[in-house]
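step=encode ok
step=design start
structure_in=
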């Protein structure tokens, strides 16, 4: 799980009823690469599947067709709920990382009143990078287990279990926000890393459940979830600003912040439960029980899907080679340590979290609005260009403590522009790559394709996670 990215994923596994409805309403493929097929020529489901068996791949994406027999989503209740689920789904990590000033306060040097960012303690320097490091390997293991046996557990069970675990962690952190941990900072440091570990494992194992379930709904519901994930970081940053304004103290604002998060998680659990009971939701997910009876994915299935999507599995690795999150967690304002309220109170929340979140959301919105597509080669070129320019420049921002590299981007606006460009391209390319993977395989292989993608991402994150610690040392 990459803390610098908002994650997303899959689409529908059609049964015979869906295929029968699709036969009556099939239209041209989005790139007009499918020939128009006469309804009369499709006599049974096997013939339908056979006619499309070789039509999927990066060069022949498929298009989902609306099921004419589906009941309406009254008041767009399910659509709105899926959007909110996308928001809450990644909110724990967004909340956890956006409260950067809170962690800096909790792990400060209690025996010194120094405001020099170069005097930060070891726990302050390495909290962000160690958080990423400690969650990657267990998260990868959970993703692997989910890929093998996750489908044996009902998707609803997995989703509500994750929401319950995350709600409990929010309540747990709310309690600690009001407790003085100065005398046992090391223990609290371990507790905080442990909380991140539990969140990562739960999210890794439960995400495929939400993928599989939402993938059965029409495609615009998946886009709603992706949009919700993008809004999550904007929401958490805006809420963080509000709590700082209401209660300027580090512990007071964090307490209000985590309590609000707890209420949101619990409320979302109730709303989602109601949405799963609607006629619309039940119609589209009626095959979910049958999915639990499927056999474990065999080597042939995994190999077949991997061969279809492998070109899209590596751009993420290029991006992870630059541990941006570990560096941005240490960036301070050019006015830090002065009497500036902006430099001491608002800079981190606005520039390190709110601006990137807004730019990422803008990138997602442009993709969703124009439904743009790019060749795989162009995606690679953009990934390499970003890492070699934007990624490298983060080493020369005002991240402290530093003892080796010079600060070249000395002004706050320069840092804001740099991080905005980084996350704008993140939002666009992430949605583009995810949708491209979904279109590259048949509908009944989408969840497996996304699981393979997530597993590769977890593997890359595990391999590159030590780079975050190294980057802090290089500064």
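sequence_out=
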């Amino acid at each position: 799980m990459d803390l610098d990215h908002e994650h997303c994923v899959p689409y529908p596994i059609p049964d015979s009823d869906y295929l029968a409805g699709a036969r009556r309403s099939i239209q041209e493929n989005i790139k007009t690469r499918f020939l128009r097929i006469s309804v009369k020529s499709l006599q049974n489901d096997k013939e339908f599947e056979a006619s499309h068996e070789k039509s999927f791949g990066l060069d022949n994406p498929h298009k989902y067709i609306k099921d004419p027999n589906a009941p309406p989503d009254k008041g767009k209740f399910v659509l709105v709920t899926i959007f909110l689920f996308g928001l809450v789904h990644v909110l724990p990590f967004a909340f956890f990382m956006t409260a950067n000033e809170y962690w800096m306060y909790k792990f400060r040097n209690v025996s010194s009143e120094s405001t020099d960012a170069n005097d930060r303690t070891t726990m302050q320097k390495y909290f962000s990078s160690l958080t990423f490091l400690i969650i990657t390997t267990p998260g990868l293991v959970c993703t692997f287990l989910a890929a093998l046996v996750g489908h044996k557990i009902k998707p609803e069970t997995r989703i509500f279990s994750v929401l319950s675990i995350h709600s409990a962690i929010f309540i747990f952190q709310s309690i600690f926000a009001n407790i003085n941990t100065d005398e046992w900072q090391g223990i609290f440091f371990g507790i905080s890393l442990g909380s991140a570990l539990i969140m990562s494992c739960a999210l890794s194992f439960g995400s495929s459940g939400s993928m599989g379930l939402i993938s059965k709904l029409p495609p615009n519901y998946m886009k709603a979830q992706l949009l919700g994930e993008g809004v999550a970081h904007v929401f958490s940053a805006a809420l963080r600003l509000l709590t700082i304004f209401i209660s300027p103290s580090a512990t007071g604002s964090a307490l209000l912040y985590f309590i609000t998060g707890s209420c949101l998680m619990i409320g979302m659990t109730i709303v989602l439960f109601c949405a799963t009971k609607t006629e619309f939701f039940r119609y589209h997910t009626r095959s979910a029980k049958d999915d639990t009876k499927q056999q474990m994915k065999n080597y042939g299935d995994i190999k077949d899907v991997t061969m279809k999507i492998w070109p899209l599995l590596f751009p993420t690795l290029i991006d992870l080679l630059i541990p941006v999150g570990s560096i941005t967690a240490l960036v301070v304002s050019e006015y830090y340590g002065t009497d500036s309220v902006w430099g001491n109170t608002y800079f981190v929340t606005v520039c390190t979290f709110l601006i990137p979140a807004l730019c990422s959301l803008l990138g997602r919105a442009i993709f969703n609005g124009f439904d743009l597509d790019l060749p795989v080669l162009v995606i690679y070129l953009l990934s390499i260009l970003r890492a070699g320019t934007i990624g490298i420049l983060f080493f020369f921002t005002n991240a402290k403590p530093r003892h080796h590299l010079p600060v070249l981007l000395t002004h706050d606006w320069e840092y804001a522009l740099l991080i905005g460009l980084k996350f704008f391209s993140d939002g666009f390319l992430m949605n583009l790559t995810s949708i491209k993977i979904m279109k590259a395989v048949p509908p009944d292989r989408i969840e497996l394709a996304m699981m393979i993608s997530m597993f590769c991402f977890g593997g890359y994150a595990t391999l590159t996670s030590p780079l975050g610690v190294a980057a802090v040392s290089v500064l």
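step=design ok
step=annotate ok -> The chain has one domain: 16-474.
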